[in-house]
Amino acid sequence: MPETLDVLSEHLDIGQVLKALADEHRRRIIIELAADPLDGERTCNSFELPLSKQTVSHHFKTLVAAGLINQVNYGNRQGISLRRAEINAKFPGLLDILIQS
């Protein structure tokens, strides 16, 4: 059974969210996920970030800690998905603003 790293929506803190989104690479990840209306799960490698594997891992951990994404460990790969419902409930319009930027 996969291991899910998750943060409940009531723990979405505006300070942590804004801090996570301040970085252009993390913002790009969220924008790419938000642009998918099906909210499909993606792998870390599918984002093609021009960064080292260690730095990419740091960015995903930051997004998980901020409550913006779910990260599921399948052993040999990580599944990434946007927490759209939780984000929209706590911060209505935030994802739309990011997509339009």
Question: In words, what does this structure look like?
Answer:
By secondary structure, this protein is α+β, with helices and mostly antiparallel strands. The chain has helices at residues 14-21, 24-34, 53-65, 84-90, 94-100, and strands spanning 3-5, 42-43, 69-73, 78-82. A 4-stranded antiparallel β-sheet has the order 1-3-4-2. 15% of the residues are buried. The chain is built from 5 helices and 4 strands, in the order βααβαββαα. It has a single domain (3-100), classed as Arc Repressor Mutant, subunit A, CATH 1.10.10.10.
Q: How do the strands and helices of this protein lay out in sequence?
A:
Layout: E1 3-5, H1 14-21, H2 24-34, E2 42-43, H3 53-65, E3 69-73, E4 78-82, H4 84-90, H5 94-100
Antiparallel strand pairs: 1-3, 2-4, 3-4
Helix pairs in contact: 1-3, 2-5
The CATH class designation is Mainly Alpha
Could you report the average pLDDT, rounded to the nearest whole number? 89
Residue share in helix: 40-55%
C-alpha Rg, in Å? 13 Å
CATH architecture: Orthogonal Bundle
* CATH third-level topology: Arc Repressor Mutant, subunit A
- N→C terminal distance: 38 Å
| Unreliable stretches | 1-9
Instruction: List the quaternary state of the chains.
Output: single chain
The side-by-side strand order for the widest beta sheet comes to: 1-3-4-2
Q: So how many helices?
A: 5
What is the overall silhouette?
globular
Number of beta-strand segments: 4
Task: Please state the structural category.
Answer: alpha+beta
Q: Spell out the CATH superfamily.
A: Winged helix-like DNA-binding domain superfamily/Winged helix DNA-binding domain
Major sheet characteristics: 4 strands, antiparallel
- Beta-strand portion reads 5-15%
State the order of secondary-structure elements, H for helix, E for strand.
Answer: EHHEHEEHH
Total individual domains: 1
